[in-house]
Hints:
The protein is of the alpha/beta class. The protein has a single domain (23-305), classed as Spore Coat Polysaccharide Biosynthesis Protein SpsA, Chain A. The protein has helices at 54-64, 79-85, 89-97, 101-112, 127-132, 135-138, 158-169, 230-236, 247-257, 275-288, 290-305; strands at residues 23-27, 48-49, 52-53, 69-74, 115-120, 143-146, 150-153, 173-178, 188-194, 199-207, 218-226, 261-264, 268-271. Strands 5-4-1-6-11-8-12-10-9 form a nine-stranded mixed beta sheet. Strands 2-3 form a two-stranded antiparallel sheet. A hairpin with a 4-residue loop joins β9 (188-194) and β10 (199-207). α3 (89-97) runs antiparallel to α4 and α8 packs across α9 (247-257). It starts with 22 loop residues before the first strand and ends with a helix.
Amino acid sequence: MKKRLINPPSPAGGRSPLRLITKAVVPAAGLGTRFLPATKAQPKEMLPIYDKPAIQYVIEEAVAAGIRDILVVTGRGKQAIENHFDRSIELEESLKAQGKRTALKMVREISDMVNLHYVRQKEARGLGHAVLCAKSFIGNEPFAVFLGDDIIDHPRPAMMQLMEIWKKYQAPVLAVEEIPRARTRAYGIIKPQAISNRLYKVQDLIEKPRPSQAPSCLGIVGRYLLTPDIFELLEKTRPGASGEIQLTDALRRLNHCRPVYAWRFEGQRHDIGNKLEFVKATLAYALKDKDAREPLLNYLREITSS
Ligand code: UTP
């Protein structure tokens, strides 16, 4: 039996006007313990992936998907994120004086990209708690969530793919990826009911199940389209075994109240909070640069042939 929500969803199926998604939340307040000591004094979201900090790829994806306002959830020691997207008058003056026009244009574009807002998560109490920090910013609108340490590379940005599903169903949509069964303990896993090749109706969600107990190998990754009723469920969510408030636990309850969909996105995902994935992402982006490609390939051949 479906439970009642205090703020029930508006009916989908064309009778209510389509609500466009213009706001996003980027949780970036985690401690990054998997990447210590690199993350002791700098945010992992600011680690450079070839020539850009990871979070800039994420913000660019949001802008490409038509998002107008982004709330970045930061924490202690994360000031570099705000500084990166702020104007840097001294740097701009210096570049201007040196006639470095291309660099000047690039630096200005970063600060003009989108309306960025910030909120501090005072303690890293989990992803669910970080999303809850956005409650008053979001109000009563559907919204997008982009994890600040997950980069997804595809000509059609992953969030745009999720928005197509939103347009059709006006219901929450989770990005999922086929993961190796041995890795289910690192993900929220869905129990899927296939609708088409990439689209699933979520039957259930389980946070970090053992491989033998996982209902599928479809792991939830860093892109979500959510409805504001998630906030009252997050408020009721108690910390899990790790002491963190898990977004997956609230999504599970949301799925008891209304249909939730999952989209197996097209694209290459890099979880840059993981050292090996970070190196792979850096290589993948460097290989896209036509000036770097050949010398880098030569170098890789050289160091792997011995
Ligand atoms: P992760 O679990 O990958 O990040 O959270 P973490 O906790 O920083 O990493 P490890 O496991 O200690 O290495 C996914 C995203 O959610 C944010 C993180 O910054 C990351 O972008 N997050 C996580 C928060 O904003 N607040 C939290 O309390 C936890």
